[in-house]
């Protein structure tokens, strides 16, 4: 396989979301990264078709970010964020707000997408309570939704393997919308599929069942990535917004993947023209150089809590590392790069060539669907009889062995490169996947 000559002891590290035994038998080790490429531990160049884990939007090893982090580490390594502040935290919040849709200009910092989701859910509960509607505690997620791994996130999430071990401990007041994935109706859609807006109307059924007065928030990924690239049908998000507004229910967009250019705009909200009440983000906010996340909150929601009846601390929530100085420095440097290099416009411009290259896989062996939006593509494969996911796992391995990093969920291959990619590299990604598809049974 690709094991370097000398490996460290692999036994102590329990790897996240990994088939540990399999990995340790055949390790895939990364050693360095620059621009569009990783270098594997055995010295091969690997084209990054996934921006790490959908997070390195400005490309790897950006000098400005490296310098900002190391400079800040020398000035002040850490500052407590409870009852104390430091200027970079406020500057980073101002910078984040400047990328958000109008009105969502209050920012709470976290360290990850999971924390951002749980923070957003808590803000929703606190908001209703501050307004005297504390009985609004129900949270509505969606089947096949991925909202990280906190107890809140897996409760509103809809991926069964992430839930079943913990099924007795999930949040009690949760319901789920149906997912929107339907190959019979939407296979090989380019951009948003035409069919499926009516699935948002299921929210009215859920509201009729529980009564709006018990529901705090609806949370969805505007475009679901981790669960296999599910693109929202035309009109779907608009309908969710309309129904939630009508019933006084907060709408949370989980933009952990979509914020910062993935679709060719600062946020999916901007891209789709649908503004939620809260946006959960992470990943691209710091180009993944330092763990960081945030929740952008509509000003009225923030004000209801902060100017509400409570005295002293208004919101009993926060992390030791909320707005960590190194994260704040990385965020400021990252957002500066996005703006200076106009990277979201670049993603938008490249999305046509990306779409064309992705759809060139129509007709390739095993392919049953190709779907795309912005710089994201999903290539769905027919599962092997009795072994779901095995074919995509083999494609992933063979791509890695031949110098290309992709991701897979079930039998869906996902591509989501850094926004600095060029047209030739886009072509290379899909040609390589096509070649590998011919090699797998
Ligand atoms: C939509 C969404 N929400 C939440 C998360 C969780 O983020 P993290 O792994 O940083 O906790 C992810 C991670 O991929 C995600 O895609």
From TrEMBL:
Enzyme Commission no: 2.6.1.18
Biological processes per GO annotation: biotin biosynthetic process
Keywords noted in UniProt: Aminotransferase, Pyridoxal phosphate, Transferase
Principal EC category: transferase
Any one GO molecular-function label of the UniProt entry: adenosylmethionine-8-amino-7-oxononanoate transaminase activity
CC cofactor: pyridoxal 5'-phosphate
InterPro entries tied to this protein: Aminotrans_3, Aminotrans_3_PPA_site, PyrdxlP-dep_Trfase, PyrdxlP-dep_Trfase_major, PyrdxlP-dep_Trfase_small
Pfam families (alphabetical): Aminotran_3
Coiled coil: none
UniProt keyword NAD, yes or no: no
Family per record: Belongs to the class-III pyridoxal-phosphate-dependent aminotransferase family.
This protein's name: Aspartate aminotransferase family protein
């Amino acid at each position: 396989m690709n094991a370097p000559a000398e490996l460290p002891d692999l036994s102590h590290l329990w790897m996240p979301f990994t088939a540990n035994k399999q990995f340790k038998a055949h390790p895939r080790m990364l050693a360095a990264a620059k621009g569009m490429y990783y270098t594997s531990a055995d010295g091969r160049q690997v084209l990054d078709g996934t921006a790490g884990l959908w997070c390195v939007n400005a490309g790897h090893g950006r000098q400005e970010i490296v310098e900002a982090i190391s400079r800040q580490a020398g000035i002040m390594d850490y500052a407590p964020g409870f009852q104390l502040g430091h200027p970079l935290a406020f500057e980073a919040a101002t910078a984040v707000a400047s990328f958000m849709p109008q009105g969502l200009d209050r920012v709470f910092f976290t360290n990850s997408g999971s924390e951002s989701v749980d923070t957003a859910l808590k803000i929703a509960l606190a908001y209703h309570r501050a307004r005297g509607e504390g009985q609004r505690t129900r949270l509505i997620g969606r089947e096949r939704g991925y909202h990280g791994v906190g107890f809140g996130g897996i409760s509103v999430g809809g991926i069964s393997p992430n839930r079943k071990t913990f099924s007795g401990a999930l949040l009690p007041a949760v319901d789920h919308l149906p997912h929107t994935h339907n190959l019979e109706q939407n296979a090989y859609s380019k951009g948003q599929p035409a069919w499926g807006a009516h699935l948002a109307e299921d929210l009215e059924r859920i509201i009729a069942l529980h009564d709006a007065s018990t529901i705090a928030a609806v949370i969805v990924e505007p475009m679901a990535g981790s669960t296999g690239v599910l693109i929202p049908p035309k009109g779907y998000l608009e309908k969710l917004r309309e129904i939630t507004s009508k019933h006084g229910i907060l709408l949370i967009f989980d933009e952990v993947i979509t914020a910062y250019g993935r679709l060719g705009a600062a946020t999916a909200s901007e891209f789709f023209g649908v503004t939620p009440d809260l946006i959960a983000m992470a990943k691209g906010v710091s180009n993944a150089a330092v763990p960081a996340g945030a929740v952008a909150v509509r000003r009225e929601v923030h004000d209801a809590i902060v100017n509400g009846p409570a005295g002293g601390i208004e919101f009993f929530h926060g992390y030791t590392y909320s707005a960590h100085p190194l994260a704040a420095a990385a965020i400021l440097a990252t957002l500066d790069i996005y703006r200076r290099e106009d990277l979201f416009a670049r993603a938008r411009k490249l999305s046509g060539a990306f779409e064309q290259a992705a759809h060139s896989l129509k007709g390739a062996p095993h392919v049953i669907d190709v779907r795309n939006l912005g710089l994201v593509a999903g290539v769905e494969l027919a599962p092997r009889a009795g072994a779901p996911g095995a074919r995509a796992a083999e494609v992933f391995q063979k791509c890695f062995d031949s110098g290309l990093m992709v991701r897979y969920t079930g039998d869906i291959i996902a591509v989501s490169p850094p926004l600095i990619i060029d047209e030739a590299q886009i072509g290379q990604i899909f040609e390589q996947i096509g070649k590998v598809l011919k090699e797998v049974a």
